[in-house]
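Quick review question:
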């Protein structure tokens, strides 16, 4: 799942931070009436979403801040948006446990209770506009990590999304160049201080590049869905 961006309440995980797996699913509530002669009548009473659970690692200069953000949300019982790939749920964190090892390296595990499933609630024939809105919500949540700003996402048009994709593509190129520069700086560091500085810059650039790559994919899918809605 390393090429997938996972976002929970505006806190994003990328690269090796991304969980190896995310457990989700649930059951269907059933009323089963056993009949004389061996038959039965089964009435479906509705879905019963199970918990969504995953574990990962906060890494980088903002690791402690992100861990504290989710722990605060857990304590408040806040409803958070959880996105990954094509999945989208509104959840409440039931349990959050972090293992503080370094300021920049904090393994964690959490369990979430599903408050609502917007895609399921929208029905099987989900409107393209709804899918576009969800994808752009993920893009917006990644803006801070990517270090760029985009306009026109609240009322998207094909031209606006094309412009956003152009900005993202340019940022990917410049961030990739910065990443290569920091790799060189790290390999040529002559003392601990310069090596640590290069590592911090390398971590930041890696996180920004992961966010930008995820944004590019979501904007691309939003563009396709918007085009289908206009047909």
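Suggested answer, residue by residue:
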């Amino acid at each position: 799942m390393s090429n997938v961006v996972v976002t929970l309440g505006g806190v994003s995980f990328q690269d090796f931070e991304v969980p190896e797996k995310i457990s989700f699913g649930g059951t269907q509530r059933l009323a089963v009436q056993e009949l004389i002669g061996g038959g039965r009548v089964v009435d479906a009473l509705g879905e019963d979403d199970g918990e969504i659970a995953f574990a990962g690692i906060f890494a980088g200069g903002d690791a402690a801040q992100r861990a504290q953000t989710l722990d605060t949300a857990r304590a408040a019982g806040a409803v958070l948006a959880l996105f990954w790939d094509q999945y989208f749920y509104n959840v409440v964190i039931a349990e959050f446990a972090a293992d503080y090892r370094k300021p920049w390296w904090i393994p964690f595990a959490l369990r979430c209770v599903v408050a609502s499933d917007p895609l399921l609630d929208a029905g099987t024939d989900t409107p393209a506009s709804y899918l576009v809105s969800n994808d752009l919500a993920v893009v917006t949540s990644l803006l801070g990590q990517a270090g760029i700003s985009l306009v026109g996402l609240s009322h998207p048009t094909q031209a606006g999304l094309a412009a956003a994709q152009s900005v993202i593509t340019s940022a990917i190129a410049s961030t990739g160049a910065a990443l290569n520069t920091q790799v060189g700086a790290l390999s040529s560091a002559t003392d601990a201080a310069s090596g640590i500085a290069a590592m911090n810059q390398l971590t930041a650039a890696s996180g920004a590049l992961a966010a930008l790559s995820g944004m590019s994919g979501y904007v691309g899918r939003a563009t396709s869905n918007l085009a289908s809605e206009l047909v």
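Why it works: The first strand starts at residue 6 and ends at 8. The two ends are 33 Å apart (CA to CA).
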